[in-house]
C-alpha cells in the first residue's frame, strides 16, 4: 500500500493526523511507501508563508476577524469560488508529484489539498481513491466535493449535516480523528510520577497547543494562587517567551509545577493528569478523549474551535472557562464533588473513538481493492 498524505501546517493538528494514520499503515504494511506533503509549502513557499503567517497572525492578534472570515466562508459563494480558483492554479504542480509517486490512495487532512485533488479528479488528470479526514468536531463547506470516495468525521451530527448538503451517506464514516498509537497505551502513573519528579496528588495539565496560544499566563496565575493542594503540569509548546515568563512566576509561589516547552510526551502527561485545561483544537481534544480526561476549555479561536467547544460542553465532557476568575470556583466544585469529575470522565470515554486509525486503515484497504 503506497499512501500520499496531503495536509497543510496551519497549526499542528492537520499534519499530526496524517502522521498518526501513517503509524497504522506502516505497522500493517512495513514495506509500504508513504509521503506526507505540506501542500502549500510544496506548491509555492511564498503562498505558504502568506497563508500560514496570515492565519497565525489573525488568530493571535485579532481572532474576531478570523472568526468573521470563517463564518463568511460558510455562506459566501465568492469565497468558495476564490478557493476553487486557487486550487486549480496550484493543481498543476501536484499532478507531477502524484504521478511520480503513484500512490494506491490519497489521504487529505486539510480541505484545501482535498479541493485540489477533487479538481484533478474532475478534470480526469488522476483517478486514485481519495479520503478526506475532518480534523475538527464541526462541518464546513470547503470539505464538500462530489468526487471524493470517503469522508472521515468525528461524530454523527457532522454526518447528518453533510448528508443534508448532498454528500452521499455511504461515503461518510464516523470513525473519528486518528491519534498516535502511543495514546492507546496506558503507562503506570506511579512510574511516570517518579520519572517527572512529581507528587501523588491531584494534577492539572495546562496546554496551549503547539504554538502556546491562549490565556495560559492568566490561567496559570489563577492556579498558582489557588489554595487547594494540587500540582500543575504546563506545556507551552514552541512559545519560548511564554515559558520564561511562567518560570519567573513559579519562583514566587509554593506550588509543585512541571514546566515543559514543546514535547512529544503528551501521552505520558495525560496519563498523570486528573484534568486537562486546553484550547479545543481537534487533535488535542481527540487525544484527551481517548485518555478519558475531563476537559476545561480556554480561549477557543472563533470559528471551528468555538464549535468544538460547544460540542464538548453540550455533551458533558467539558466546561468552558469564560474568565480566569472562575477557576477557583470550578476547581472547588470538581474537588468537592467527585461525582462531577467521574461524570465528565465517563462522557469523555463515550465520545472517544480509540479505534479510529484501524477503522480508517480498513476502509483504505477496501477502497484500494
Automatic annotation (TrEMBL):
Family the entry assigns: Belongs to the glycosyltransferase 28 family.
Short name of one Pfam family: MGDG_synth
Organism this protein belongs to: Acetivibrio clariflavus (strain DSM 19732 / NBRC 101661 / EBR45) (Clostridium clariflavum)
Top-level taxonomy: Bacteria, Bacillati, Bacillota, Clostridia, Eubacteriales
Keyword Glycosyltransferase: yes
Keywords: Glycosyltransferase, Transferase
Gene Ontology CC terms: membrane
SUPFAM superfamilies in the cross-refs: UDP-Glycosyltransferase/glycogen phosphorylase
One GO MF term: 1,2-diacylglycerol 3-beta-galactosyltransferase activity
EC number of the protein: 2.4.1.46
Domain Diacylglycerol glucosyltransferase N-terminal span(s) in chain numbering: 14-179
Top-level taxon of the source organism: Bacteria
InterPro entries named among the record's database cross-references: Diacylglyc_glucosyltr_N, Glyco_trans_28_C, Glycosyltransf_28_UgtP
Name of the featured protein: UDP-N-acetylglucosamine:LPS N-acetylglucosamine transferase
GO BP terms in the entry: glycolipid biosynthetic process
Places the protein is found: Membrane
Domain Glycosyl transferase family 28 C-terminal span(s) in chain numbering: 203-350
